[in-house]
Amino acid sequence: MIELEGVPELIDPVMICAFEGWNDAGDAASTAVGHLDREWKGEVFASLDAEDYYDFQVNRPTVALEGGVRKITWPTTRLSVVRADTGEKSRDLVLVRGIEPSMRWRSFCNEILGYAHELGVEMVVILGALLGDTPHTRPVPVSGVTSDPDLARSLDLEETRYEGPTGIVGVLQEACAHAGVPAVSLWAAVPHYVSQPPNPKATLALLNRLEDLISVRIPLGELTEDSRAWQLGVDQLAAEDSEVAEYVQSLEEARDTAELPEASGEAIAREFERYLRRRDGQPGPGGHATESGGLAEGREGGTGGPGAPYLRDPATGHGRPRRPSPKDEVANDTEDSGGAEEDAKDPDDAQGTEGQDASRRDESGTERGGDGDEGSGSGR
After folding, report:
1. What is the pLDDT of residues 89-113, one digit of tens each?
2. Distances in whole angstroms, Cα of residue 221 to Cα of each of 21, 164, 231
3. Rounded CA gap, 107 and 21, in Å?
4. What is the pLDDT of residue 378?
């Protein structure tokens, strides 16, 4: 039974969902929902029973000491509500953030839809991120898809034609469609050669696209500066390896060539209108994310250090350790060489991308290649 005690009457509510795991490359989608929750100080009002949906040998609980008392935190999905108040317009967002369930997906979706119904949710937006053949130096591609033809026309989205294995994002979107709830999925493409989290550039792109979709201005905080620093860090690592630098250049050329037809008068006018809306602080429908993203230097995932961005060999897909500088070699003379082996480990085990089927098209419309890497083919 769904209980909503303490939840006020909501204003034009939209439900925003993201799930860690298979559909969350670089943790870009779950981080985007977490950003909304922090910026608007979300209040959790419900959580799904972990016993019903999670295999604890796959997603293990964690234990911590709080005031000298041991406390176990179970993996689950939580719902919170935030009020997006921009001064001129207010609307409520119901945030759903959790881990892709291990079992009973239909019951899981029905429970989420039960909350959506009780709260009067007008639309469900599900965020996802996938690995793709996209260069880190270009704007992050974000595609919006829906299975509702009318919604596709009214919001300038693509009508999904995907066939193949799917994750909880695809299942929840179809559950919404069968329940008569308007639903949209936004997908960000993360460069497969720098796939480990976090990826603030992809997070920022998702938030910008979401801002246009729901017509609410989203405070970005430090994300813009973080994304800029992230890109500079990856630039530095790529420049130290001639093969990777050549591969990135080939991706840039392919991307630029593919986008040439888009440089039409209509496309340029659309982007210019979007720029004016952002300059005046007025979000609006349509448009595509163009901002950079990254982590500030010195933070985990920034330039240098054990959390530095990790590059994959474009030929084999295996990990490539950062090439040591002469300064590093001097410092390492007295250290064990095992550290380099640790740097070369493939982080995809932590990403949850291992075991993805080869040569399939994702719900976002992009082509996925072998070894869990997704390509940037349109295939829509």
Report:
1. 789 999 999 999 999 999 999 999 9
2. 25, 38, 17
3. 19
4. 36
Q: Residue 9 class from Cβ within 10 Å (0-12 exposed, 13-18 middle, 19+ buried)? A: exposed
> Cα-flanking dihedrals φ and ψ of residue 331, to 5°?
-65, -30
Q: Are 285 and 215 contacting, i.e. CB atoms less than 8 angstroms apart?
A: yes
pLDDT, average across residues 312-340 = 47
Q: How far is CA 25 from the centre of its chain?
A: 6
**Interval 126-167: pLDDT, tens:** 999 999 888 898 889 999 999 889 899 988 899 888 888 999
Q: Whose structure tokens read 């075991």?
A: 355
pTM for the whole structure? 0.70
State the Cα–Cα distance between residues 36 and 41, nearest whole angstrom.
8
pLDDT at 220 over 70: yes
Taking alpha carbons only, the member of 223, 216, 230, 255 closest to residue 308 is 230
Task: Give the closest residue to 83 by CA, choosing from 185, 2, 8.
Answer: 8
Q: Please answer whether residues 214 and 91 qualify as being in contact, where contact means their C-beta atoms are separated by less than 8 angstroms.
A: yes
